[in-house]
Amino acid sequence: MQLVLEQLNKDYRGKPAALRGVNLSLGSGVLGLLGPNGAGKSTLMRILATITRATGGRVLWNGMDIAKNPDSLRAVLGYLPQDFGVYPNLSAVEFLEYLAAVKGIAAGAARKRIAELLELVNLTDAAKRPLGGYSGGMRQRVGIAQALLNDPQLLIVDEPTAGLDPEERVRFRNLLSELSGERIVILSTHIVSDIEAVASSIAVLAQGQLLAHGSPEQLLAGVNGKIWEVIVPSGEVSALRQRFLVSSTAHRADGVHVRVVSAAAPASSARPLEPSLEDAYLATLAVQRDRDKRAVA
Amino acid sequence: MSALHSLLAVARSDFRERTRRYSFLLTLLFAVFLGYATATGKVLLQLEEYRGIYTSGWIGTLVALVITCFVSLVGFYIVKNAVERDRMTGVGQILAASTLSKPAYTFGKFLSNFAVLSSMVGVLAVAALIMQFVAAEDPNVNYWALLSPFLLLALPTMALTAVIAPCFETIPLLRGGFGNVAWFFVWVFGLSTPFFSGKHWLDPLGLITVVDSLSAEAKKAIPGYHGGLAFQIQIGQKISVAENLRWAGISWDVPSVLLRVAWLAFACALALFASLIFDRFDSYKSAVAPHSPSTVAVAQLGSASPVNFPLAKPVHLTPLVASDRAASFFRQLRAELRLALQGFGWWWYAVAAAFVIAEAAAPLSASYGIILGFAWIWPVLIWSAMGSRESRFAMRPVLFSSSRIVPFQILVCWSAGFIVALLTGAGTLARLVIAGRAQGLLAFLAGAVFIPSLALALGVVSESSKFFEGLYALLWYIGPMNHTPGLDYTGAADGAHGLSFAVKYFAIAAACLGAACAFRARQLRGN
Q1: Which CATH number fits domain A1-76+152-214: 3.50.50.60, 3.40.50.300, 3.30.70.3490, 3.30.70.2740?
Q2: Is the dihedral of CA A167, A173, A175, A177 positive or negative?
Q3: A156 CA: distance to closest CA in chain B (Å)
Q4: Residues paired with residue B241 on neighbouring β-strands, in sequence order
Q5: What is the pLDDT of residues B369-378, one digit of tens each?
Q6: Residue B226, helix vs strand vs coil
Q7: Residue of B317, B334, B403 with shortest CB distance to A74
Q8: In chain A, what residues touch B389 (CB-CB under 8 Å)?
């Protein structure tokens, strides 16, 4: 199974392009999609989910253009949108039975699958209650269950852990890892630790452009030897931020521990640290911002 | 001062939001269409078989009556979403957490609605002025006679429509489809009450003022005129111009002006009343079960041992094989029917069953007439949800990423609506079969096909249920209730012409279904 994006563009009239020449080739595994707000992540997800059409380029699912033949992908697609609703008068079982029928799953297989999915998302006890009475986290879990209903080969999940409590979040991350063996999973989130935990490859989008794509190791290698910790009095943090990319700060008894991304040591007292994915992500964005500034100048 | 500022901010932002939507342009185009229809004689103010010369007074009153009688009905459906939009977008939650008072909110929404409807009044006032020049029957333009009906007849009526919409939106029972249908009956009540009661102060639309003023003048100018006055759509009736009738317009005296101002004040008072019942977006349902107490002990601050989550449930998902992926029309139909019928209490089914029993037990003329008419208004909320349910419940992304939506899911959805029509009309259907009334049976089936087709088309195109609810209530009143041939979609009023009725209605249904498929395919293609 293969998903290929070729020179994908999406323009909206009178607005900056949402996607600009995105090229990607994906095999089975989890792709973590990272990017700031407005980077084009949701637009990309909607195009891949056949909800929105690209204005340029094409998406090939096993060699077939999904714009020309969307049903070829839809039959094996699981999609959890960022904002989705439920029918409030249906119970979780009834809601999933309805979607199973829409997705063309045989009745017997659907019943079994729904029971398994409800157990998986920890909703068996609430399965017969109307969805209108569910909390936000419970609805999100119903959304996860519906995305897995048709045993999808391509699973697209947009901010799937939003609204989940820590236990459910970890459970969902484990689930994604388990599922990724035999399918393509595209996970978009702002929570870098979610991606760190499950992604076999990472793509960074900003302003509609693909800034980086590779394995977590490749991304981390890019900032290897460039992460430093400096301990400064709290009054000096601001000055440090002016000069360097600061990825985090922590107040401790001996001062503020500042995590800095820099090619050279920011101070003689700086000590090198192991890079995290968050450092690599911030550094990628910073490089792009720097390029843009220079281009404008 | 701060409350006034907040109120105006609500009104202004809501008005801006609406006027920047494509639908606002359509609203103004609708006003232009009404102006055009009036100017070209499609709408008439008729004194038995006469009309007066198109003076400023006549034209101003005629166009103002178009507003009070038509726009007052339709305008409700145009503006009834101001509170709902805040509820759906989540803006309401932000407003609820602010210092904005409930009266400022409801009054602000009323003002915004009033501004939207007033813009239609403005368009039609300009149309009236143009109409006098185009008609050229009276070269003298009397601006007061031309514009005072807009000011004193149309605007107070628009204020009432503008305030009733948020009132309905604040009452849970009237917030949804039931309210959309109920509005039609409220409107009919408002239209007919002054004539039944004969009381000026019970005339929200100002119709008695027009009738009194115009008929007094007409009696002087038209020999043999008995006082009949009709405001209607031109459907081929014979009409002559009474050359002696140069009506100067409504003679506004102080009591009649005060009465119109009183309706405006009543609208303002209703806006404040709505604030008393407005829930301030507190939609918490007591049905939500409290979370079961956590079995995980709360970790103490600084505790060395972290909280241990019971995470290790293994994943057991049985893979689907090819034979599991088999589309079934009937399985999906069953799911669609269940979706359509969910949410109604036992009493709803009891009333539907009572209609079916009445259809079977009553004489055929009543069964295939008034009883079927009532039986086919009862499921209006089931039909009105067709095609728009996905948008209402934000299910479009999930549904549209599934395969075979067009035409498969559309046809399944339509079939569910058709079955509802057959089931609620089952008694009449059986009676027609037993009586061997082939033409009646065909007309009945055409009606049963027509209703879900119209509902689906309007639902898909408008992505809302309210347009079908409003139009269907109007059609139901004119057709089955008033037994109007051609418009009685049950086919009962067409009697012996059942075949031609059926052909027409099957054709309309096919066009509606085609439109629904085309629009849904367009929606699926995205933008």
Answers
A1: 3.40.50.300
A2: negative
A3: 11
A4: B51
A5: 999 999 999 9
A6: coil
A7: B403
A8: 87
